[in-house]
Design a protein that fits this description.
Immunoglobulin-like, 40% strand, elongated, six-stranded mixed β-sheet, 396 residues, single chain, Aminopeptidase
């Protein structure tokens, strides 16, 4: 590529394969900056490389903003992921004439500090003489994600130095929250901006009674008669729903009767409601009737999440929930990820985008635990304790 002057750079090329290409990432100086447009027509290759099924549409292209590059030598890599899971990479180096730039930046709307329960757009600009590596956004000390960088800023001479990141409303806590933005340079430079905000909101909790309808869940024996998990998790869920409302929360139940709800629909209900916490209630079973106690399962993986901290915050919430189990006399069993306890990920935890926990409140197969599980007075006391811990977690 030789030497390029200070301007946007078109990164383009082709990938020839008899397989299909899923995506092509463009990497500049070790940082992924985006995914290239694919299936661009290449008549020259259709003629010269007809042995490849994709030759005629093998092209790709991405326009990289001029402020993505450092002065001097830069490396651009195209990384193509094929349908079979393999990766093909190619790189090129070039020199870039970048004018000297003073390190400076800003965070927009510093004077706006009061918000409702709403998504918050974090924006501003930042620049270094060596170029910007990335812009990281934090909320209350937790990583939210990496902002989009390279947006044209009219207040910075129309340079591509702007950044934007949307903090989702269900990341926010009632009351005081702190937003921090770190603009990181390619040579270790850093610009940091902090903003304290007040959020007026009532958190929404989705209460999920496991199983239901044709799915009876675990089975226990009471006076020689079979009893089923689906009955008692619903009773607990109804009790918790009432106590959460009394504590000042908004609530949504995935089921309020003996009906079967698909796991994907339970997650969809929470996602569409922008819930602040998904709380699933279950009772466990073991062929060993001496097994007893209560524990909390949290996600090891999410298909999509409202922030990078969703799993970490699920673990935090689980810690509060566990205190209720201990205070109510359940044996303290090990908490953990769905993968570590169940041997696989759990649909309602991986498909919900927000903080999520799945509780196992005692064993249907243990006489002592079952006596607690079926007791309406105990159910209400347990629900009241859980509501108090959830309220403490949200700082209400």
């Amino acid at each position: 590529m030789g030497t390029l002057d200070y301007a946007d750079v078109t990164v383009q090329g082709y990938v020839l394969t008899n397989d299909s290409v899923k995506q092509i990432e463009i990497i500049i100086n070790g940082v992924v900056i985006g995914t290239a447009d694919m299936n661009i027509k290449r008549d020259d290759l259709a003629a010269s490389h007809s042995e490849f099924a994709n030759a005629g549409t093998s092209g790709f292209k991405l326009i990289a903003g001029k402020d993505r590059f450092i002065s001097g030598t830069n490396q651009v890599t195209a990384s193509a992921k094929l349908a079979d899971g393999s990766t093909v990479k190619t790189s090129t180096n070039f020199n870039y004439n970048r004018p000297a730039i003073n390190s400076e930046g800003k965070l927009d709307n510093l004077d706006v500090v009061n918000y409702k329960n709403e998504d918050i757009l974090v924006s501003g600009y930042g620049k270094f003489d060596t170029g910007v590596k990335n812009v990281r956004v934090y909320l209350n000390g937790r990583a939210q994600g990496t902002a989009e960088y390279g947006i044209i800023r009219a207040d910075d001479k129309n340079l591509n130095t702007g950044y934007e990141y949307l903090i989702k409303r269900n990341n926010l806590f009632p009351g005081k929250n702190t937003i921090k933005v770190e603009v990181n340079g390619n040579s270790g430079e850093k610009l940091t901006y902090t903003k304290e905000i007040n959020v007026e909101k009532i958190p929404t909790i989705v209460v999920d009674a496991g199983h239901g309808g044709k799915d009876s869940g675990a089975r226990g024996k009471l006076n020689g008669v079979n009893v089923y998990e689906k009955v008692y998790v619903l009773q607990y869920a109804l009790a918790l729903d009432a106590e959460l409302k009394n504590a000042g929360f908004k609530t949504i139940m995935t089921r309020g009767n003996d009906s079967f709800i698909e796991l994907s629909d339970r997650a969809r209900i929470a996602n569409e409601a922008h819930a602040d916490l998904f709380f699933s209630i279950h009772h466990d079973y073991s062929p060993d009737s001496s097994s007893q106690g209560a524990f909390v399962i949290y996600p090891s993986y999410k298909v999509s999440s409202i922030s990078e901290s969703a799993i970490r915050e699920s673990i935090d919430a689980a810690g509060y929930v566990k205190q209720s189990f201990i205070s109510m006399g359940f044996r303290n069993r090990r908490d953990g990820t769905d993968q570590s306890i169940s041997g696989h990920t759990l649909a309602v935890l991986r498909q919900t985008e927000m903080r999520s926990v799945l509780t196992e409140i005692g064993y249907m197969s243990n006489a002592e635990d079952l006596s607690k599980i079926i007791d309406p007075v105990f159910q209400k006391a347990m629900a009241k304790s859980l509501a108090a811990q959830i309220k403490a977690y949200f700082g209400m």
